[in-house]
Amino acid sequence: MTPDQSLGQTSGQTPETTTEMTYGDAARLALAEEMRRDARVWALGEDVGRGGVFGQYAGLQAEFGAERIADSPISEAAIMGVAVGAAMAGTRPVAEMRISDFALCAVDELVNQAAKARFMLGGQVRVPLVVRQPMGIWPALAAQHSQSLEAWYTHVPGLVVVAPATPADNRGLLKSAIRSDDPVVYMEHKDLWKDTGPVPDGDDVLVPLGKARLARPGDDVTVVTWSGMVRTCVQAADDLAGQRVSAEVIDLRTLWPWDQDAVLASVEKTGRLLVAHEAVLASGFGAEVAATVSERLFGRLKAPVRRLGGPRMPIPYSPPLEAQARRTAADVARAVRGLMQ
Amino acid sequence: MEPHAGGAQRNLDVERLRRQYLDMARIRAFEEAAAAAVAEGTVLGLIHPYIGQEAIAVGVCANLTRDDLLLSTHRGHGHTLAKGASPAGMMCELLGRANGVCGGKGGSMHIADASVGMLGANGVVGANILIATGAAQAIKMQGQDRIVSCFFGDGAVNRGPFLEGLNWAAVFRLPVLFVCEDNAFSATTRTEAMTAGPGPAARAESLGVPAVAVDGNDVLAVDTAARDLVAAIRAGGGPRLLVARTYRLSGHVTIDPAAYRPDHEVQERWADDPIVRCADLLRQAGLDDGTLAGDLDAARDEIAAAYRFAKDSPWPDPREAFTDVQDAGGPVMEEA
User: Are residues A172 and A252 in the same domain?
Assistant: First the structure.
């Protein structure tokens, strides 16, 4: 894993040039490219015909029509359940849940049906669907529009869980998710839609599922993170560089399967690990990463593994209250300095 | 809701009715053999017998092609057989054997045979309604000439997917036949006591889904009603609901003695056994008792052979437990 591999192309053209675009536009481009490439791909969800809540479907209905960019009733269970049936019957649906909180209305369809159908039926069917569930704190939208529930889905056999942090990854990973024959829980972060970054040119540039990205190289400590916390951790690492602490930031990108090899190799090098996420700390996915590293590299650790995550409380509305739920670059830097003592 | 004319007013196709008689007998024999196997200890877990409801699966499936799809319930053996699955492959699945239709991974509650369009029983009441709706949407989107049938019980109409699925199917005008098998019980509670309003057909019609109610113990009536509904769906008319009134002659599961029902009620309903009623129709059409008894024997023999085959079949290789979980990030087997 090198910084150059951060663009992670695995097939098609080698990107020699890039285009600056937003995280939201990168996903829109990915879906449009996959729909042009494969007539079986379609999207369904509330308001997608008008572009979706965050504009991530803007213009797609004009190109692909109302059958393939299908507006739905406010029926999350049906959006998910219809996607399961449509996937079993030969199409490749992309189900939009609006936000991950609303996807909780469709947990039976995702966990009991999508994740298990292939297994329960002894491999007679596949369920190639993507369910997009934007996650994370949505400023001033409070407790039912702001959760980060990615760890729940990593616990469910059958599901792939993806949480992209950059425009390039949101394009390349969404394309890989659509081409996957597994049901993929695809969690974009609500605070990243307007972030811009370079996206490799060429319409066949994929980012592989299950491969981490080296967001920032370093030598003293490994910081493992994903989604909206990646930029926070990179900011912290930049700040720490001025204090002669060299932090390596790894963006997992995919939470299941997660790139154990990349994490273990980095911690073997640095001897120190911080896992940082926006989700509630208790039973967060950081616990899985921390436990794995502790089991595998106990003798090589220079300090106990450390986790940083949200407090175990619903996300509040008022700004000074909401701020208590956020983990900042200063929090990350403090935790890293703690590891260095 | 239109009351549907029974088959008596139509010209009777005796050969068709006799095939349906045999198909019902096969389902009855399968369920009796499965219940005996539970008692014997060769079938593990719970099975939900379809005894008494055979006319519905058979009458509906008589109007489906092999390419049509079917989504079923926890009480799904009858639907699976009626759609054309092999009893041997099904019995192997119930016994958890390697050559079961699902390789022993699903058992009774997840029985399926995709080769005949049967895409699965389901352990969650009502969940199949949305899956069926989605399959119908895929069919429409791909311009295919087939339909989906979706069976569920009277209890399912009190779950959200009934509302969400029927609304969706109507909005998108999808080719799906919903079949509500009203067997009077939601597990061990009378559905009537737990259901407000005039019932499934009225609920469907309030969503613009035309509904027809029939005597679900009259295979001819089911067949006739299903034929008309399926024709309307194939013609692009959108979803339809068939409400088939019946009675669950067994308990919720084989180990449920169903003591919550008075004996006289159960005795009365056994007198309405759909297989006996079908035999009466065939007798009136000129078939003799020996022929009818012969069909029952043939059904029992076929199922008995399937059971023997299953008992002699090998267990799955334990390593199969780790297959078909997922492509990316599936379980890694611990090497011994």
Answer: no
